[in-house]
Amino acid sequence: MHNFRKLRIYQKAIDFAVEIYKLTKSFPKDEIFGLTSQVRRAVTSIPLNIAEGSGNKSNKEFKRYLEISLRSDYEVMTCLEIALRLNYCKKEDFKKLIVESDEIAAMLVGFSKQL
């Protein structure tokens, strides 16, 4: 078992979720049950699955949760691309968040390989 609160990837995922929540506050109100909800659920899934997976006794099971986190991260990237194309976010914000998302993906893959 791992102490998820001490994992750098967990902390980064929490920070990323906060940034996505701040960004989506400016999305159109008619997206509250659409893209806003989807990207928020996807981004919270990243740290939630890291935390849940860390409670497993086997590293194999923990890796499975890290893979779910990775897929959620890819989902966030896709939502950001859609938001950009709909002009819901600025290109600068998009680029910054995609870089962070890519970093999280790399960290998830790297951490999974270490287990």
**Element-level helix/strand string:** HHHH
Helix content: over 70%
CATH class: Mainly Alpha
Mean pLDDT across residues: 98
Q: How many separate domains make up the residues?
A: 1
Give the CATH topology.
de novo design (two linked rop proteins)
Walk me through what this model shows:
- This protein is an all-alpha fold and 115 residues long.
- The protein has one domain (4-114): de novo design (two linked rop proteins), CATH 1.20.1440.60.
- Helices cover 77% and strands 0% of the residues.
- It has 4 helices and no strands.
- Helix 1 packs antiparallel against helix 2 (35-54), helix 1 (8-24) runs antiparallel to helix 4 and helix 2 packs antiparallel against helix 3 (59-85).
- The radius of gyration is 14 Å and the shape is elongated.
- It starts with 7 loop residues before the first helix and ends with a helix.
- The model has no long low-confidence stretch (mean pLDDT 98).
Summarize this, please?
With 115 residues, this protein is mostly helical.
Topology of helices and strands:
Layout: H1 8-24, H2 35-54, H3 59-85, H4 91-114
Helix pairs in contact: 1-2, 1-4, 2-3, 3-4
Features of the shown structure:
single chain, 115 residues, de novo design (two linked rop proteins)
